[in-house]
Amino acid sequence: MTKNSVTVLGLGLMGQALAGALVRAGHATTVWNRSPAKADALVAQGATRAGSVRDAVTASPLVIVCVTGADAVREILDPVAGELGDRVLVNLSSGTSREARETAARHPGRYLDGAIMAAPPAIGTPEAAIVYSGARAAFDEHEQILRDLGTATFLGDDPALSALHETAVLGLMYGILNGFLHSAALLGAAGVPADSFLPFARAGIDTVAGWLPGYARQIDEGTYPALDATLGTHLAAIEHVVHESEDAGVDPALPALVRAAARRAVSAGHGGDSYASVIEQFRDKESA
Ligand SMILES: NC(=O)c1ccc[n+]([C@@H]2O[C@H](COP(=O)([O-])OP(=O)(O)OC[C@H]3O[C@@H](n4cnc5c(N)ncnc54)[C@H](OP(=O)(O)O)[C@@H]3O)[C@@H](O)[C@H]2O)c1
């Protein structure tokens, strides 16, 4: 066991990318996977195959686990919890805040929860953003190795912060993705190919991205002055999306959901405010 040795448990698409980056960076890398054949290519590159989870865990002071989710993490690590001792456990499996807190409670003091905001090909490059939260001392101790996986950011002592940021980004991405798919369906109903919509879609996404700093400031300050368009003006535009969808025979459920939130905000007195005021509808689940 050397200072720069590291163990990777879980060699799916992401685990293989993580272990491969560590091998390339020159770390003594021990790997384990439930289906052992997935370690073959890594062993050919210089990784060491562990015959059991116990052997894998005891091989390194830093243990990284990246499997499907919290249930799999528990299944793998609960039987060897005693072997972890003061080793640092970094969990890069996706999950919720609650799962992160539960896993942290099983490994007190030496646990980092992480979230990978990148696809496997980016791992090992600065383009791979990976956030960590939990034991600050553990992050400091192994920061150099973690930086070999991508751009590492420590978010804070609460182990839930990484999962929370991951789900926040996912929520944003699915909002954009489904907005694009709905618009493509709308255009497709008129025979317009999705490909020709791309320049307009990109411009729309860029425009909204440009609004975000101002909206973020308003959200943090709790006041929503309408600097460009009022919520009332936005609501009229959303109505057009709903009606256009209905006329085209496209499911209007997605814009109707957006309209419902905007209507509630107007009813709550925000018609003359900026669109950012709709956040109060998302905060108050009782009003939905
Ligand atoms: N791929 C991405 O683009 C990406 C991006 C960001 C985050 N992530 C996260 O990274 C994690 C792994 O993703 P992936 O793409 O590597 O998934 P994957 O290719 O489907 O691999 C899943 C891994 O989990 C293991 N596993 C599942 N259940 C298990 C159990 N009960 N006991 C032991 N091992 C178990 C699998 O082992 P077997 O090989 O034996 O089945 C395999 O190693 C997920 O939480 C995912 O959300 C992935």
From TrEMBL:
InterPro entries: 6PGD_dom2, 6PGDH_NADP-bd, HIBADH-related, HIBADH-related_NP60_sf, NAD(P)-bd_dom_sf, RedAm-like_C. Transmembrane segments: none annotated. Residues 1-19 form the signal peptide. Keywords: Oxidoreductase, Signal. It comes from the Bacteria. Residues 6-154 form the 6-phosphogluconate dehydrogenase NADP-binding domain. Residues 158-283 form the NADPH-dependent reductive aminase-like C-terminal domain. Belongs to the HIBADH-related family. PANTHER family: CYTOKINE-LIKE NUCLEAR FACTOR N-PAC, OXIDOREDUCTASE GLYR1-RELATED. This is NAD(P)-binding domain-containing protein. It comes from Amycolatopsis thermalba.
